């Protein structure tokens, strides 16, 4: 407890402060009674020393040395029995005590030193007993709140009442998501100040820090999180420069409760991320029909008609596997970067890769270069990273093709070129870069009348890819040569084209490749 709080008790009303008034906020953790010349050797942090002053009446320098020693050991002060051996204290000693903020107290001449120590100790024990009961009560209250799974707003209001101060909950981007009721109106202003004016590197903030906001001191404490990049923060209005040990203990109780609530939120977010990853993997593997995909996207508030490019971020060296926790850190940092700068990018995990769905309005090279520079600057990352991305943007329904392009590009990356865009290696790959609507229009115009006739379509396809060799076509399809001739005649009539014309054959070949 604080020395000034102790001296406010009625049983200590006869004790008078004569110097070191600015040190009355020092914590008192124990009371000692020593009357020896080498008293400096027995000083402890938080100790209030009670003495008769016997050795100081003849040698004031001993009192001077003691006060200096008390300052070095962070002792709380010295109480001298007035009138027993000392009735005055030299002015230079009083001045030194004021400079070092070491309180000097007079205790009543009528009290035995043992009685003074007993009274002081009784006050400390009574206070500690009361505080212990309060801490137990607070712990039970906060545990009950967590068990009830209440809202952050309610939790912060209760915490503010316990601490008798305003507080806010900040996310990993120093945004004040919630605040106790009396501070709700300050959330946006606090967020702007912390993000833009405080100059705090909040991504790497792991220790408590103090800032001044609206002429008030604010303590910011990191809240426990399983992953550093997922951490949150609590911001407290400071009502006293040096909070008491009891206030610190109450604050720690609140921090533990907020940490538990934050861990629960982390778990929900990670579960949602894993579920989303499962959905996208199902889309890639063709395990969902169009209706199922559209229903999921609608529930996730994603426009099914939006187009995305796909990028694959691979954190592992070629043919090497990195430890899973290191992979989690890289993925969390990437997601932190996307959220920090409000990029319109969806993410999901696939094996040791993080797959990014970049909205078509994003300049992919600009975004991916910025991402790579950010990740490369993080000291916790020791593995190189490579990125491949698709050449085109399509709806999520075509995720498999987009992923395939990005994966092909990824295989071409190198130390010199860590970011690669897909480059088609064949005419068929090049054709599939055409917008789907244009491709479908060309197919319909070229082959439309026979698309529903599988027999004629297969015959035409075989004829084209066997270089118009009717005999080879007949052997391949196990039918008579005359049957093939008859079918080709029907195709020619239905499509209204001459199958001997090179430009007609070229259009048909392209249309078949687009199917």
Automatic annotation (TrEMBL):
<dbReference type="Pfam" id="PF17853">
    <property type="entry name" value="GGDEF_2"/>
</dbReference>
<dbReference type="InterPro" id="IPR042070">
    <property type="entry name" value="PucR_C-HTH_sf"/>
</dbReference>
<dbReference type="Pfam" id="PF13556">
    <property type="entry name" value="HTH_30"/>
</dbReference>
<protein>
    <submittedName>
        <fullName>Purine transport regulator</fullName>
    </submittedName>
</protein>
<dbReference type="Pfam" id="PF07905">
    <property type="entry name" value="PucR"/>
</dbReference>
<dbReference type="InterPro" id="IPR025736">
    <property type="entry name" value="PucR_C-HTH_dom"/>
</dbReference>
<dbReference type="InterPro" id="IPR051448">
    <property type="entry name" value="CdaR-like_regulators"/>
</dbReference>
<comment type="similarity">
    <text>Belongs to the CdaR family.</text>
</comment>
<dbReference type="InterPro" id="IPR012914">
    <property type="entry name" value="PucR_dom"/>
</dbReference>
<dbReference type="InterPro" id="IPR041522">
    <property type="entry name" value="CdaR_GGDEF"/>
</dbReference>
<feature type="domain" description="Purine catabolism PurC-like">
    <location>
        <begin position="5"/>
        <end position="109"/>
    </location>
</feature>
<feature type="domain" description="CdaR GGDEF-like">
    <location>
        <begin position="289"/>
        <end position="412"/>
    </location>
</feature>
<feature type="domain" description="PucR C-terminal helix-turn-helix">
    <location>
        <begin position="456"/>
        <end position="513"/>
    </location>
</feature>
């Amino acid at each position: 407890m604080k020395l000034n709080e102790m001296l406010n008790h009625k049983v200590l009303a006869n004790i008078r402060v004569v110097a070191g008034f600015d040190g009355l906020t020092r914590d008192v953790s124990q009371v000692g009674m020593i009357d020896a010349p080498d008293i400096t050797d027995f000083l402890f942090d938080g100790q209030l020393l009670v003495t008769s002053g016997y050795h100081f009446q003849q040698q004031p320098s001993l009192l001077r040395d003691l006060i200096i020693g008390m300052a070095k050991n962070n002792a709380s002060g010295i109480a001298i029995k007035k009138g027993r051996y000392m009735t005055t204290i030299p002015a230079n000693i009083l001045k030194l005590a004021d400079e070092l903020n070491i309180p000097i107290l007079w205790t009543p001449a009528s009290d035995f030193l043992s009685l003074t120590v007993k009274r002081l100790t009784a006050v400390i024990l009574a206070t500690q007993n009361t505080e212990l009961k309060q801490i137990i009560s607070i712990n039970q209250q906060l545990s009950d709140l967590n068990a009830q799974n209440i809202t952050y707003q309610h939790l912060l209001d209760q915490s503010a009442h316990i601490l008798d101060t305003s507080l806010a909950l900040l996310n990993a981007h120093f945004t004040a998501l919630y605040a106790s009721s009396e501070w709700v109106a300050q959330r946006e202003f606090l967020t702007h100040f912390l993000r833009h004016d405080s100059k705090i590197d909040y991504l790497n903030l792991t220790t408590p820090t103090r800032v001044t906001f609206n002429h008030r001191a604010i303590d910011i404490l990191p809240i426990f999180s399983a992953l550093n990049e997922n951490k949150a923060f609590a911001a407290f209005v400071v009502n006293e420069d040096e909070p008491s040990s009891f206030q610190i203990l109450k604050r720690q109780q609140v921090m533990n409760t907020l940490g538990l609530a934050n861990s629960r939120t982390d778990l929900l977010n990670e579960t949602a991320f894993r579920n989303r990853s499962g959905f996208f993997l199902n889309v890639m593997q063709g395990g969902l029909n169009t209706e199922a995909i559209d229903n999921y996207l609608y529930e996730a508030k994603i426009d099914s008609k939006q187009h995305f490019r796909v990028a694959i971020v691979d954190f592992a060296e070629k043919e090497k596997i990195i430890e899973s926790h290191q992979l989690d850190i890289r993925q969390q940092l990437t997601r932190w970067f996307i959220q920090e700068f409000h990029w319109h990018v969806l993410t999901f995990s696939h094996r040791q890769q993080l797959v990014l769905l970049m909205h078509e309005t994003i300049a992919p090279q600009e975004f991916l270069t910025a991402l790579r520079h950010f990740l490369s600057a993080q000291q916790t990352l020791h593995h190189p990273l490579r990125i491949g991305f698709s050449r085109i943007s399509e709806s999520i329904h075509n995720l498999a093709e987009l992923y395939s392009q990005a994966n092909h590009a990824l295989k071409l990356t190198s130390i010199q070129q860590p970011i690669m865009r897909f480059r088609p290696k064949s005419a068929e790959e090049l054709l599939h870069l055409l917008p789907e609507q244009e491709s479908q229009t060309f197919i319909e115009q070229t082959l439309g009348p026979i698309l529903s006739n599988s027999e004629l379509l297969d015959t035409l396809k075989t004829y084209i890819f066997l270089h118009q060799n009717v005999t080879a076509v007949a052997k391949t399809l196990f039918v008579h040569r005359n049957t093939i001739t008859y079918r080709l005649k029907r195709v020619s009539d239905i499509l209204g084209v001459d199958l001997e014309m090179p430009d007609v054959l070229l259009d048909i070949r392209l249309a078949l490749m687009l199917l």
